[in-house]
Every structure is written in C-alpha cells, then in structure tokens.
Amino acid sequence: MRDLEPLKETIVDELERERHTHKSLRKRVADEHECSEEAASRAISALHDAGVIKHEHGFFELTTDH
Questions:
Q1: Residue 43 near residue 29, CB atoms below 8 Å
Q2: Distance between CA 16 and CA 35 in Å, rounded?
Q3: Where are the beta strands (DSSP E) in the chain?
Q4: CB 14 within 8 A of CB 20
Q5: What residues does 62 pair with on adjacent strands?
C-alpha cells in the first residue's frame, strides 16, 4: 500500500486554499501525485476519520481543530 502521508499533506494544502467536492479533491491529488483516485480517496477518508477535514453541503473543508 502506498504511503498516504504525502497525499494527506497535499489535501490539507488544497483545502487551505479552497473547498473541494470529493471528486475534484480526489482528482487533483491523484493528478499531482500520479496515483490512483482510490489512493487519494483513502487519504481523504483517513483525514475525515481523524477529524482534520469535514464534509458539509457537498464540499470538504478543514476543521477548525486541525
């Protein structure tokens, strides 16, 4: 399994700039890291489960707790 840490860092960086839908965030991370969208989705899920990001009204954004 691919190390998710670089993907997670990219996700946080992206969400510091703007909100994303799951699809747009997954695609952006996969393109930047030349990985599968499935791997990007696992990194998104890991951050969501850890409470670093939240999904509201169709968009992911950083929580205030990160």
A1: yes
A2: 21
A3: 53-56, 59-62
A4: yes
A5: 53
- Of 56, 4, 62, nearest in space to 35 by CA: 4
Task: Record the tokens describing residue 31, joined without a space.
Answer: 């393109």
pTM over 0.85: yes
20 has which bridge partners?
60
For the stretch 9-45, pLDDT in tens is 999 999 999 999 999 999 999 999 999 999 999 999 9
Supply φ then ψ for residue 62, to 5 degrees: -70, 150
> Residue 14 corresponds to which tokens in the numbers above?
């992206």
Q: Provide the token pair at 9.
A: 């860092």
Q: What is the pLDDT of residue 1?
A: 46
What is the predicted pLDDT for the residue at 64?
81
